[in-house]
Specification:
This protein is an alpha+beta fold. Helix content is 53%, strand content 17%. It has 4 domains: 92 residues, no CATH class; 97 residues, 2-Layer Sandwich (Beta-Lactamase), CATH 3.30.450.20; 72 residues, Helix Hairpins, CATH 1.10.287; 155 residues, Heat Shock Protein 90, CATH 3.30.565.10.
Length: 465
């Protein structure tokens, strides 16, 4: 039975007894002969009242039914619909309140959606892995970085346990411990035994109202590079200490020997003083190389600016190394084009690069060998090669060749006066000027170093040999 019929019957049920009581009351004051007129009038009023009630109920329910589609749409989540009833009565006010409620819901949902999108964008762009779990240890959130770090393969891990999602017992045990104890936990772990990657795992409990633990948040940071840098720093300090201690020990030992009476022997005095000078020079070279390397590595340090002429710099380096090369019977061959563009690097730095490469080539090339310096312009860069016919470098040593204090043959390098910093200086000076270096070598056949430096826009001014 429809609402309008129910309302009409309700009105009839209300009017019927009222009209019946009115007829009985009036029948006391009218003659019996006119009673049929009275009851006919009562019946007519009853019918008219019922008809009016029905039409009023129909009009009332029609206006209420106009709200029904809007309410149904809101229940489905469509908050863009509005009631169109514009009257000043109670139904009109009800429709206005309904529209206001929907508008507030719509605004709240838009704000929630905007905040959710912002959170998703932040979590997606983070390099750290983030995962949240509820009090039962089920995943409620995991960002892209955490998926990659933890190897999450499930398309939608939400609602799954940590062990089912991650399949790493150490991570699961850490999550369960934080959920059980409610304390912060930090540790370093390796998620993949076959990889050297190290992660810092941080777990913090989520505490809700009343101090109840409602879950936990897990944050993963890749600290592999930090640990490598710490290891390199430790090795660097140890190497510097060792390199400084060796010449200082020699200087101290020979000086004490002279003080104890050896100075009286002219031959010994001369020999010991020459050793002291040699070790002091070695110490001086080491400190100079450390300062140059420090400046080259420190991006905040402003390097000297200038233009360099490759012909002039090679000529200066050749002049310095020619006596040693001639003493060993080596041939220094220059294969440079007659004209070359100037380079956007200070000549001191270019000289340092060439001196280190050419000095190594001369030192590690046996008598009768050859050292060749060549250059060419290609792809907007100047490519310079230093090639020798020396003893070569083992293949396993090539990846570490540009590390600080790395020596292929430590005893021979010290004997030849090397500090172990020359190639590291070359690499960092080139990188500070946008260049790069590579090396190929074969034991017993020789070594070839090739470095590239970008040319200025327009090719730079030409220089002649």
């Amino acid at each position: 039975m429809s609402l309008k019929v129910k309302l009409a019957l309700a009105i009839s049920a209300t009017l019927g007894p009222l009209l019946l009581a009115t007829g009985i009351y009036l029948s006391r004051y009218v003659p019996p002969a006119t009673w049929h007129y009275l009851w006919s009038a009562m019946a007519f009023l009853m019918a008219a009242g019922t008809a009016c009630g029905y039409f009023w109920a129909r009009h009332f329910t029609q206006r209420l039914q106009e709200l029904l589609p809007v309410a149904q749409a809101a229940a489905r989540g469509d908050l863009e619909q509005q009631a169109s009833i514009i009257t000043g009565d109670e139904i009109g006010r009800l429709a206005a309140y309904f529209n206001e409620i929907i508008a507030r819901w719509r605004g709240s949902l838009r704000e929630i959606s905007r905040e959710r999108d912002q959170l998703d964008a932040i979590l997606t762009s983070m390099s750290d892995g983030v995962m949240a779990v509820d009090r039962a240890g089920r995943v409620v959130l995991v960002n892209r970085a955490a998926r990659e770090m933890l190897g999450v393969s499930a398309a939608d891990p939400v609602g799954r346990s940590v062990l089912e999602t991650v399949r790493h017992y150490e991570v699961d045990a850490a999550v369960q411990a934080v959920l059980a104890q409610g304390t912060r936990l930090e540790k370093e772990i390796r998620l993949h035994p076959t990889l050297p990657t190290t992660y810092r795992l941080s777990l913090v409990p989520i505490v809700g109202e009343g101090g109840q633990r409602t879950g936990a948040v897990l944050v993963l940071q890749d600290v592999t590079q930090v640990r490598q840098l710490e290891r390199l720093r430790s090795e660097f300090v140890a190497n510097v200490s060792h390199e400084l201690r060796t010449p200082l020990t020699s200087i101290k030992g020979f000086a004490e020997t002279l003080l104890e009476g050896a100075a009286a022997d002219k031959g010994l005095r001369q020999k010991f003083l020459e050793i002291i000078i040699t070790e002091a020079n070695r110490l001086h070279r080491l400190i100079d190389d450390l300062l140059i390397l420090s400046h080259a590595e420190n991006r905040q340090f402003e390097l000297k600016r200038g233009q360099a002429d490759l012909h002039q710099v090679v000529a200066k380096v050749e002049e310095l190394l020619l006596p040693l090369a001639q003493a060993k019977g080596l041939a220094l061959q220059l294969d440079l084009p007659p004209t070359l563009p100037s380079l956007p690097i200070h000549e001191d730095y270019l000289g340092q690069i060439l001196l280190n490469l050419m000095d190594n080539a001369v030192k590690y090339t046996p008598a009768g060998g050859k050292v060749t310096i060549s250059a060419r312009v290609a792809n907007g860069e100047l490519e310079v090669a230093v090639q020798d016919t020396g003893i070569g470098i083992p293949a396993e040593a090539l990846p570490r060749l540009f590390e600080r204090f790395f020596r292929v043959d430590k005893a021979r390098s010290r004997e030849l006066g090397g500090t172990g910093l020359g190639l590291a200086i070359v690499k960092h000076l080139l990188e500070r000027h946008g260049g790069r270096i590579r090396v190929t070598s074969a034991p017993g056949k020789g070594t070839r170093f090739v470095f590239n430096l970008p040319l200025p826009e327009g090719g730079g001014s030409l220089t002649q040999s």
